[in-house]
Amino acid sequence: MAGKVTIFWFRRDLRIDDNVGLYKALHGKYPVLPIFIFDTNILSELPEDDARVTFIYDTLQKIRTELQEHGSSLALYHGTPTAIFERLASEFDVQNVVTNHDYEPYAKHREAEISEVLKKKNIGFYTFKDQVIYEKDEIVKDDGTPYVVYTPYMKKWKAKFKQEGTPKIYYTSQVLDNLIEHSRLPNLTLADINFKRSTITVPEFDVTPTTIQEYQEKRNFPFKDATSRLGPHLRFGTVSIRKMIKKALAEKNETFWQELIWREFFMQILWHFPATVANAFRKKYDRIPWRNNKKEFEMWKEGKTGYPLVDAGMRQLNATGYMHNRVRMLVASFLCKHLLIDWRWGEAYFAEKLLDYELSSNVGNWQWAAGSGVDAAPYFRIFNPTTQIEKFDKNRKYIKQWIPEYGSDAYPDEMVAHKAARERALNTYKKAIN
């Protein structure tokens, strides 16, 4: 057995404790070689100062340091996963590769390729559920078909959870002595992967009892900034979903709990309906003749529409990589309905900018705004960007925070009149889908 190893492949699970795949690997018979691959297939699409890459890099360095305290380390690689696994198989006597499930279309394709590479080398490949409580078809209707409406899905989710009880926490600290004894495994700099440090940082998450208890009362008001900031940490797995669910239950906050269930609802939708990444779930909505005016799209991106709450949201996004959830709904509705610009354009821009970008939730929410998705807002529901201010930013604190020229001649006029844009959207949608 000397020299034989099991590889644990970190991906969307960037933590040591309560990491199911890592826990399972450490309980195996061979020492564990932990690795992370900066996948060039993904990185090639990103700007060189992408804040998420900086966050991932810094998190990996912390994991390396922690593992080095146990006489081991974390090996970092840069390239295509298939090429990296070919290299690993030549450098180590690899017996097994262990990782956690990922549900996005590219990840599934990548796993299929890796599985073939490893199979030819007689290397075992094992994956585990880690980033959700329930996955794939674990919550389906009685006839086995997927839910496409949130409320019945949520009720079934809760019933199953109540029946099965609080999920197990996988403590790895007792088994870290089964890591490979090698504290100088390959490392990389940001420059090695053709990136540079971003000026935007991912904020720490806040799931204190106070935040959870006040979540329902404060979450709709963008100036209060009372959200948990959990998004990026769940996206990259720096926190455990099992621990977050336990916190929500401890504070008995249904709203916070249900937001975590929304995440799983969209993830199972993407798993069952991968075509929704590029196509409307309700197929007739692909008949909408989008105007797709590039100049207007730029004005929306830059926060220069003349509608203050829309503009404040876009400027917050551009400056910080974050936008308050209530404002996200408004800016998405404005793009699709007021400007009649394809939801896919907006989805792609959010993908580029959001620190908490999650393909399933982003596609799901953009299709909701466009009226084309599962459990979507009806096409005739069109937010009024002005009355939304009275509801959610009455004192203009959020607006003034992000639009210093608000109230002056320097602030642009409304790029389109609400009433005319609403009528245009209603007529366009009605003709296309009826």
Automatic annotation (TrEMBL):
Family annotation (Gene3D superfamilies): 1.25.40.80, DNA Cyclobutane Dipyrimidine Photolyase, subunit A, domain 3, HUPs
Organism domain of life: Bacteria
Keywords: Chromophore, FAD, Flavoprotein, Lyase
Binding residues for FAD: 215, 256, 259-266
Cofactor: (6R)-5,10-methylene-5,6,7,8-tetrahydrofolate; FAD
Domain Photolyase/cryptochrome alpha/beta: 4-133
Molecular function GO labels: deoxyribodipyrimidine photo-lyase activity; DNA binding; FAD binding
Family statement: Belongs to the DNA photolyase family.
The name this protein goes by in its record: Deoxyribodipyrimidine photo-lyase
Organism field: Rasiella rasia
Upper classification of the organism: Bacteria, Pseudomonadati, Bacteroidota, Flavobacteriia, Flavobacteriales
